[in-house]
Design brief:
Elements: H1 3-38, H2 41-58, H3 64-73, H4 80-111, H5 115-118, H6 123-155, H7 159-182, H8 188-212, H9 225-250, H10 252-259, H11 262-271, H12 273-288, H13 290-299, H14 302-338, H15 347-373, H16 377-401, H17 403-416, H18 418-430, H19 434-465, H20 470-497, H21 503-506
Helix pairs in contact: 1-7, 1-12, 2-6, 2-11, 3-4, 3-6, 3-9, 4-6, 6-8, 7-8, 9-16, 10-11, 10-16, 12-14, 12-15, 13-15, 14-15, 14-19, 14-20, 15-17, 15-18, 16-17, 16-18, 19-20
């Protein structure tokens, strides 16, 4: 594949990934009211916890998945050597993933009997919880095989191909869940949907492998022990960082279910749904810049790396602050129209979730440059320490002050660890002064917050004056979005990013043409 073709494929994969994320969010918006119609708050909260547990079990590939993709990326050719290496990587990966899948299933079997007592489930929920966790553990084990077969498509720039099929299967699974819930299946609806998604995806992957890699052979003869050791060695710090990230961002529901209630899990999850989607979309800004940043920090001057760092951090901090104010303006109103006011936790919980969204976006943008440089060990170890501190503080503060305490614990843990340690490592390894970090964050955050505060008061006043309808919500949302986005572009993004705007759009976006 030529350089141009690879670039086009990578760009198409990025665009399709963003599109699928947005469409998935819209599907979630439509499906959630239908789900809560058939489940009470405790049942829906328990279903959320089930998939939190699945998220933890999914981490037990020990960074093996990204390492396999990295090895596949080194062997794209059709010659005999590359074909042999692809067979070795695939065979080694599949056998390793089968073993890891078995390990995950055993962990799930061991933990399942403790679920009812841990969350003090009422009798009808306790009756189904254990067999559901047993079943999901087996399904999760099968999902590891899915990772082993699917990595080659991402490595060889066929993200759109595998991403599109996975997206269709996932949407079909959501529809199946709603249909089964409407038939009175209860929590088992999510299990059957998950089984459908995993095994349908496996079937699709096998078909695509036979279509695009007809010479591929998975056999014991191709299993390579030295390669296995290399893959685990390369992936261990990715695993540590992934584990820490999962704990930092996704333990909150497990803690809330333990120290508050399952109903509180439902209310919390719906309240923070949009901030979490915002964090996911903001994270794609740095993910999309991966190839360019890796090349710059590895092969170009430190001044060039500093310039790109300031630019990326400026972009993520401005977009994060913009998202903060827009979500703060409209999230409660949206939830009231969406599922009803009883599913909104409080403005305090929402504000804390939004602060966490901005904080994590900025820290991820900083740490991204360290991983691109190859300095992952110290940051991964600090992330693990942050994860442990996060659990301790969230449990303690959650017991003391309820839902807000869980988020406050996460924010304090991050402030005491990664929020200061990441800029320190950037200064140490990339010679990026602390001033570059703080100036790229504080100046746009302060400016946008002034405008955001004005828009917030305007929106709240209009809510009192105008009728509470979907049409009014949509029109006012568009108006506020255009005003804040226009202010952000003109004041903070037009100058550094104007040169990248196509010539035909420069006049519309008030970009001064370069001489």
């Amino acid at each position: 594949m030529s350089f141009v073709s690879r670039s086009r494929s990578a760009l198409l994969g990025t665009v399709s990934s963003q599109a699928f994320t947005i469409i998935g969010m819209l599907v979630s918006i439509v499906s959630t009211p239908l789900m809560v119609r058939y489940l009470d708050k405790e049942e829906y909260g328990l279903s959320i916890l089930f998939f939190q547990v699945i998220g933890y079990l999914a981490l037990f590939d020990f960074g093996f998945g990204p390492a396999v993709i990295q090895q596949f990326a080194l062997h794209r050719g059709d010659d005999e050597h590359n074909q042999l290496m692809i067979n070795r990587i695939m065979s080694t990966g599949v056998y390793a993933f089968l073993a890891l899948g078995l390990l995950v299933s055993l962990i799930g079997f061991f933990c399942a009997p403790f679920v009812p007592g841990m969350y003090h489930l009422r009798a009808d929920l306790a009756e189904v919880a254990v067999p559901i966790v047993f079943t999901l553990s087996v399904v999760m084990g099968a999902q590891f095989l899915q990772r082993g077969l699917g990595g080659i498509f991402y490595a060889h720039h066929r993200q759109t191909l595998i991403g599109t099929t996975s997206f269709i299967v996932n949407i079909s699974g959501t529809i199946l869940s709603i249909v089964l819930l409407s038939q009175g299946v209860g929590l088992w609806a999510f299990v059957y949907s998950n089984i459908f998604q995993v095994f349908t995806t496996l079937l699709v992957q096998v078909i695509l492998l036979r279509r695009y890699y007809p010479k591929l052979k998975i056999a014991r003869i191709h299993f390579d022990k030295p390669l296995l050791k290399l893959l685990f060695s390369n992936g261990r710090f990715m695993f540590l960082h992934g584990l820490a990230t999962q704990i930092i961002l996704n333990t909150d529901r497990l803690v809330i279910g333990k120290v508050v209630s399952l109903a509180a899990v439902t209310i919390f999850s719906i309240t923070v749904r949009i901030p979490e989607v915002g964090l996911s979309l903001l994270s794609r800004v740095t993910e999309n810049a991966t190839p360019a940043v890796m090349e710059i920090v590895t092969h170009e001057s430190s001044d060039r790396a500093r310039e790109q760092y300031r630019r990326v951090l400026l972009l993520t901090s401005t977009l994060g602050t913009l998202a903060f104010w827009l979500i703060l303006c409209f999230n409660q109103w949206f939830i009231t129209l969406w599922v009803g006011p009883s599913f909104f936790a409080s403005n305090l919980v929402l504000s804390l979730a939004l602060v966490l969204m901005v904080q994590q976006t900025i820290v991820r943008s900083m740490s991204f440059f360290l991983y691109a440089k190859g300095n992952s060990r110290q940051l991964s170890l600090m992330s693990l320490f942050e994860a442990g501190l996060n659990i301790a503080l969230s449990v303690f503060l959650g017991q003391q002050i309820g839902l807000p305490g869980v988020l406050v614990g996460t924010l304090i843990a991050s402030s005491l660890t990664s929020s200061w340690y990441t800029p320190y490592l950037l200064k140490k390894y990339l010679a990026i002064p602390l001033h570059d970090s703080w100036s790229s964050i504080l100046v746009p955050a302060a400016g946008i917050s002034v405008a955001g505060g004005v828009v917030y008061m305007f929106v709240k006043w209009m809510q009192v004056v105008l009728p509470n309808t979907v049409l009014v919500f949509g029109l006012l949302g568009c108006l506020a979005g255009v005003l804040l986005a226009g202010f952000t572009w003109l004041m903070f993004l037009r100058h550094p990013f104007g040169p990248y705007v196509p010539a035909r759009l420069q006049r519309i976006l008030l970009v001064v043409p370069s001489s």
